[in-house]
Amino acid sequence: MTEALQFFLISWLDLKLLGLVALGTFAGIYVGAIPGLSVTMAVSILISFTFAWDVYPALCLMVGIYMGGVYGGSRTAILLNIPGAPSAIATALDGYPLAQKGQAGEAIGLSTVMSFVGGFIGIGVLAVAAPFVSEFALTFQPRDYMLLAILGILLVGSLSGESLLKGVFAGALGLLIGAVGLDPLTAEERFTFGMVELWGGISFIAVMIGLFGVSEALTQLHHIDKAAVKQTIGRIVPSWRAVGKYLPLSLQTSSIGVIIGALPGTGGDIAALMAYDHAKRVTKKPEVPFGEGAAEGLVAPETANNAAVGGAFIPMLTLGIPGDAVTAIIIGAMFIHGLNPGPMLMIEQPQMFWFITGALVLANIFMLIFGLTGIRLFTKIVEMPRAVLIPLILLLSIVGAYAVNNSITDVYWMLLFGAFGYLLKTYGYQVGPVILGVILSRLIDENWRRAIISEQEDLGRLFMGIFTSPLSLVLFGAVVFIFISQTPLWTGLRARFGTARARGDGV
Amino acid sequence: MKTLFTGALAALAFTAAPALAEYPEKEIQGIIQWGAGGSTDTVMRAVTPHAEEMLGGKVVMQNMTGGVGAIAVKFASAQDADGYTLLMGAENPLLYKVMGLGDIDYSSFVPVNVIARGVPILVANNDAPFDTLEEMVAYIQENPNEVKFGSTGPGGLPSVVTAMLQSEIELTVTAVPYDGDGPALTALQGGAIDVMPAVLGASIEAIKAGRIKPLALIDTQANEALPDVPPITEAYPAFETYLPWGPFFGVFVKEGTPDDVVAKLSEAYAAGVENADFQQLMDDRGFQVMNISGDEAQEFLDKWQSVTSWLVYDAGIAKASPEEFDIPRPE
Predict the structure, then answer these.
(1) The domains spanning B23-117+246-325 and B120-241 adopt the same CATH topology
(2) Share in percent of chain B as helix, strand, coil (round to 5)
(3) SS3 state at B217
């Protein structure tokens, strides 16, 4: 135990390592805040950059960037309605309305503290229950991923705003966009019209930047002469009472974050959206309705996406299986530095596990410090005149879209989806479900096919499988319950028999 | 920002040095065919810094993924044949023609160095009702279609190994496709699939930890990394005609690149591969270092293409006959 503590504290006691974690976290916050500059990209550039370094300093920098970057995405989501990263999409839903009311400072303060809480819960689970959680994550079969993706698709109900029908249309469109490109399982061309440029599919980041960034800039042109919202910066750090009040919710949403983060193939973006939906479901009486600036709508995604960071390290450190794209790159970096990440790492090199855990805690603390100190300056962004702000948004969007793959095609896609997003918004369609569809498209497509191929293309066997596995049964029950709860049938049943009876029907 | 900087630097180099200056007079672009963190990426990012020392220039590496690697190949072949664009790839392009994934393969390139080769291995879930290759064959023949083999899509390593097995043994299995060998090996540990033809390097840590069990090496001899695992030829000598076979990593430049540039690059990469740290990395990951260039590399590529194209064609997963592209049937 003392040995573990010793390894845990390596990065705390060495001034150089401490400085690198701080630097990484600081850089991560700004990388994360700019749409298109992603953590994945930053970490892969760092691999070449830190090649000649020792393994500890290299990891310190990467861990810092990862933690800071996941949090940084919320900045622009709150201030400009442009998520800096996919995992901040849900943050914009209630964060931006708060900024519009002049409460950007409070919103950022709350999101920072809650990211810190979520981050800690994620790391805590990593430290005490890593082997258990990774074994649990391994038990997910293709059919379970399929059910999880269907559960995700049902979030359309939470994201569609005034009209469910329009939301369903937008979600279906997203699924279609996600299907473009070479079929991931058979390499057949799908909706490519013979163009090689479309083989790789339409970049999801380009779609996101267009739908959120450019369409927002275009929408703002309507009131270009309106004075900017004056921000009142009062209390930035939320009171203990407020943190205490959201603690039960943040425990639940952090658990969602850890599990979704630990599952190979799903990451912070899906976790944050699911957590948002969960918050909407369990919060009976929000002080402010969801979508208009509910604090719960900010707490849920922010705790979940930072908890997913710790989650993603769980299968990576215990089994050598990456929990998401960033941990996949960190595994590559560890190989280059002469380590062999795999199930033996914990046994042969226990110091690595505790070292990374220690660096994560440190990064989480720095995230809180840097997050809370820059707020006054940041909120000035929203007070800028629109004639300056709108060109700036467009510029950032173009740079971001280009930077993802160094591809000018992505910039065209981004602009096209920007114009398209403007039309969607004008006619009352939400852009959230489109992005949801794109994110889940591959997950649902691949796993449905894997599941049915595994059962020799026999539906009966597939359902047998679902009903004989406790995990699948729970997920299936959740799908049915959430689906029914969104139909008029549910309201009718509730009126007649009460909640309990209807839940029984659902399962 | 980085691109801007590179551009400025390139412009500077261009104006400062006359056309006759010695190669490399500006930054070299390295196009990695697969994503960050994968085997190809790891190998290239590990060997290139050592090669740079010898080369006296900088190689800026970039991942260009998509289209089973075809997008990177297409991009590299569209650049000038001046040695300033390196294609860092794996074996896949040699199958593009027969798989209908485009008409550009390594025949439009010159090999700078074929760095290393992976050894395929058959691994199984610990709960699978067989412990050796013979037991597996017997079980599958008694229970056709019940055993699930992991796959990475037509033309991927698992599909070729499965085709190779099926060319000599009667095996009816269900192939479940995954995004790559990483996700498939994860699924193997979780029991979603029963058997996976994988690369030794990708599965070795899980084997050593006892999380999955090895059945046989798809090679002619045992491997130092796992001395107890029998080569397939021990039980089925007929496979000798196909072996040694395996995925590989190589650095290529476009055909038509000046000979002295190719020679200089080959020399640099040969020295890079010799580096002790890199050799250690290859050993740890279970790769066989090849370090060949010139005619030797070309011969290796031709044999690989001939054996594999005909295997996938005979197995019925190819879209076009190798004959159409003048790929001879192996003797």
Answers:
(1) yes
(2) 45, 20, 35
(3) strand
SS3 A477: helix
What is the block-wise mean pLDDT of chain A (507 residues), using blocks of 10 residues?
82 90 92 78 76 87 92 88 86 90 88 93 92 87 91 83 86 92 79 80 86 88 76 75 88 94 86 91 85 90 94 90 84 80 82 92 94 82 81 85 78 93 90 88 90 89 90 91 77 64 41
Q: Does the beta-carbon distance from A186 to B154 stay under 8 Å?
A: yes
Query: 3-state secondary structure string, A113-150?
Result: HHHHHHHHHHHHHHHHHHHHHHHHHHCCCHHHHHHHHH
Q: Does domain B120-241 have CATH number 3.40.30.10?
A: no
- List Cβ neighbours of A414 (8 Å cut-off, separation of 6 or more): A206, A207, A209, A210, A213, A214, A397, A398, A401
Domain ranges in chain A? 2-468
Nearest-by-Cβ selection for B67 from A45, A196, A342: A196
Q: What are the chain A neighbours of B126 within 8 Å (beta carbons)?
A: none
For β-strands B174-177 and B120-125, DSSP reports them as unpaired
CA distance A54 to chain B (A): 13
Q: Which of A182, A329, A335 sits opposite B285 (nearest CB)?
A: A335
CA–CA separation, A489 and A154 (whole Å): 16
ipTM greater than 0.85 = no
**Domain B23-117+246-325 coded CATH 3.40.720.10:** no
Residues of chain A contacting B204 with CB distance shorter than 8 Å: 342
Sequence ranges of the domains in chain B:
23-117+246-325, 120-241
One-letter amino acid for residue B329 of the chain: R
- Is residue A507 helix, strand or coil? coil
Name the DSSP letter for residue B319: S
